[in-house]
Structures are given as C-alpha cells and as structure tokens.
Amino acid sequence: MSITADSPSMTTQTTEALSFTNVGKRYGEGPFAMQGFDLQVSPGELVAIVGASGCGKSTVLRMIAGFESHSEGEITLDGNPVSSPGPDRGFVFQDYGLFPWLSVAENVELGPKQKGLPRAHRRDLVEQHLDLVGLGRVRDKYPHQLSGGMQQRVAIARVLANRPTVMLMDEPFGALDALTREQMQSDLSQIRRSVGTTVLFVTHSIEEAVRLADRVVIMTGGLSQGIPGHIRRIFDVTLGLDRDPTSVEFTDLERLISQEVHAQG
Ligand SMILES: Nc1ncnc2c1ncn2[C@@H]1O[C@H](COP(=O)(O)OP(=O)(O)OP(=O)(O)O)[C@@H](O)[C@H]1O
Ligand SMILES: [Mg+2]
C-alpha cells in the first residue's frame, strides 16, 4: 500500500519539511531552558533526539506542535512559520493518549472527522491506517481491551490518518516491555518506508536512535546544569535499512554517541 502525505499550501519555496533557526525557549520570566537550536529536517527523514533529562527534548517537540510558544528564533513547517497547533503535526505520546470512550476505529477517525471529510473518505482512511499498523481485526474494541503495544499502534494510526507533514514522537516506546519495543521499532521502520512521513523522535535509548534514525541529534545542557539546553553534535546514520544491532558498525556508532551524550562541558 502506498499512502502519501497531503501537501499543505506551499506559500514559500523550501526543501525542508521542518526548520529551526536559532530557536530559544524561556518558561515565563525564567532563564532560557534551551537556546540556539538550529536544525533542518528533510521530507521523509527520521531524526532522533537524545540527551540527558531536562536538556529540552520535549520542549523542542512541544514548540513544533504549537503546544508551547518559542521565545526567540523561527520554526517553520513546509516554509510556513509555526505558531499554534494544527493537523499538519501529529503527536505520539508515551502514554498513548487515546480516548478511552471511543473504539479503535473511532479514535483513528477523529482527525479526518475534525477536518470535515465525508464519511466514505473517513472510512477509507481508517481502514487503510488500521491495516498499516496491523490492527484491522480490533477496529471495534476499546483502548482498555488492548495491550500497550497495540494501543501505541492505534495512536500511530490516528496520527497518520490525519496525513501530517511531520509526526512528533516523545519517547513513544518508553512504557513498553523490551520485546514489544523491538517489534514496534521494526514496525515503525516499515510504516515509514510505506508512508514516507517525516518524523522527529525523542528517546532515552541510544540503541533505539541508531536503529531508527537517519540522523541522531545529541542535546546537552539544561537548567540543572546552569546553561541552556542546546545541540552538542549531530551524527548521520549511514547503516542502510536493515540494521544489525550486533554489527561492529552499529555498536561503534552507539559507543560514539554514548560518549558524546555523557561528555562533560
Ligand atoms: N511548563 C514548564 N514550566 C516551566 N519549566 C518547564 C516547563 N516544561 C519544562 N520546563 C523546564 O524546561 C527544561 C527542559 O524540559 P523538557 O521537558 O523539555 O526536558 P527533556 O529533555 O524532555 O527531559 P526528559 O528527558 O526528562 O523528558 C527543564 O528544566 C524543565 O524543568
Ligand atoms: Mg521529555
């Protein structure tokens, strides 16, 4: 199956799906929690962000989502400045964030319904995306009847049914057991290949970042260290599609990233 993202109005010529230029964030009148954040993400790219707790990873995602304003700099999506939430950005949370009173199909249908799409089109989108995550058979069940992994698949289907420009994932597999987590990682890789959505993915697991990402952004600093959170380094991951976590290339890169994450100063 091939599903492509709708292309929102292109008012500006740009090659980036997502761009941060010198972005900084202060909460209230406090010091800058993060500052000087520069990153360009190409369409279809998966960029992972890793870094110690409090360095501003979730803040980055929430600013793109429009849940938080940025205090300085510019964030653009397909060339258009971001200022408030919109259906062109989908958020996948660690705790799934499904509506418990809605069935699986109704959860996935939510975005298309809010967009006012006709019923037949909505049905198609729901079926396509439940198939995509392998959950067609549980369409009438409710979230509490599903395992954690299945709930997270519904959350991913719900986001993708909205055809977002970018999918924002904040430690999406952090609450899952190790086996389910591995399965979800492999499924996400396949889903991405099929859909081509741009993804920004926050994780505490360096192995997960190396398994999934085209690039890994390492953030450091944060209020507890007395300096605003910022990017320390960005690694390209050139390991191909089928990555073997036991290969020398994989473990070498993991070690390099780990050294950067834990480096002082
Ligand atoms: N709503 C808020 N009000 C005030 N300060 C906040 C708020 N949200 C986050 N912060 C502060 O901003 C800094 C960055 O927080 P953020 O949640 O982005 O970090 P993180 O890298 O996602 O951490 P973790 O790995 O623990 O999830 C922290 O010092 C945090 O205390
Ligand atoms: Mg966080």
Task: Kindly identify the CATH topology of the largest domain.
Answer: Rossmann fold
Strand content: 15-25%
Q: What's the end-to-end separation, in Å?
A: 48 Å
Number of domains: 2
- List the ligand species: adenosine-5'-triphosphate, magnesium ion
Strand order of the largest sheet: 6-7-8-3-9-10
Average residue-wise pLDDT: 92
Helix percent reads 25-40%
CATH homologous superfamily label of the largest domain: P-loop containing nucleotide triphosphate hydrolases
Biggest sheet character: 6 strands, mixed
Total number of strands: 10
At CATH level 2, the architecture of the largest domain is 3-Layer(aba) Sandwich
Give the helix tally: 7
Broad shape: globular
What letter string, H or E per element, gives the SSE order? EEEHEEEHHHEHEHEEH
Description:
- By secondary structure, this protein is an alpha/beta fold.
- The protein folds into 2 domains: 2-88 and 164-262, P-loop containing nucleotide triphosphate hydrolases (Rossmann fold); 99-163, no CATH class.
- The protein has 7 helices and 10 strands.
- It has helices spanning 57-65, 104-114, 119-132, 148-160, 178-195, 206-212, 248-262; strands at 18-26, 32-41, 46-51, 72-77, 80-81, 89-92, 166-170, 198-202, 215-222, 227-236.
- The strands form 2 sheets. A 6-stranded mixed β-sheet has the order 6-7-8-3-9-10, sandwiched between helices. A 4-stranded antiparallel β-sheet has the order 2-1-4-5, covered by helices on one side.
- The longest helix is centred in the C-terminal third of the chain and has 18 residues, at 178-195.
- The chain is globular, with a radius of gyration of 18 Å.
- The termini are far apart.
- Mean pLDDT is 92; it is low at 1-12.
